[in-house]
Amino acid sequence: MVKACEDAAPVWLESPTNPALELADIETITAAAHEAGAYVAVDNTFATPLLQTPLAMGVDLVVHSATKYLAGHSDVLLGAICTTDDELFAVLKNRRDLMGAIPGPFEARLVLRGMRTLHLRVERSQANAQELVRRPADHPALGEVRYPGFGGIVSIVLAQGAIAADLLTHKTKLWVHATSLGGVESTFERRRRWKAEAPTIPEGLVRLSVGVEDVEDLWDDLRTALDGCVG
Ligand SMILES: *Cc1c(COP(=O)(O)O)cnc(C)c1O
Question: In this predicted structure, what is the pLDDT of residue 64?
């Protein structure tokens, strides 16, 4: 692994990955990257700082799309970079000062307000997600359910591919077909509808962002839609 990191400047990780939901062994990769002289950045958007703390695992930089769980209400675009490394901080701050890429005060306020309920929203989204992955295991419309065991993002793969997945995303009443995620409302998206999505992602994969609604309402809506995607 050290060899694989040689010549790298940053080693960039996303864990869990979007939308395949694979996990990286952050500690092992970070140790190898450091040995090879690279620094490590982790996109921690899916896990949130409550479920995964990469800085405590030796990672140099953590990035968050604050647009997602941190703000939590699908009404702001903002990002955050976190580091405990003084040198990296100075480089980033200098770049920000020169380029002027600072957040607007209103956006900052929305994220700050959202973060006051982050623990409640993450707890509920995760509980809902864990319940939902238990239920459809043997539904005939489903080929696969991917869930890393924590967090509120689940990916399901429709057995009959793109057409069935498109059908699903248009058959629900509660789940909204949308690209963004991490809000209080449940959203989902067939990722391969975008040409830029990696061809390694199955055509029939639908990424669910499980919100904080009543899990029975979420399941009823999803199951009814899945029932309409068989055959
Ligand atoms: C949405 C997202 C981004 C991009 O964030 P924006 O706030 O939309 O610019 C980056 N990484 C992950 C994992 C995301 O979900």
Answer: 98
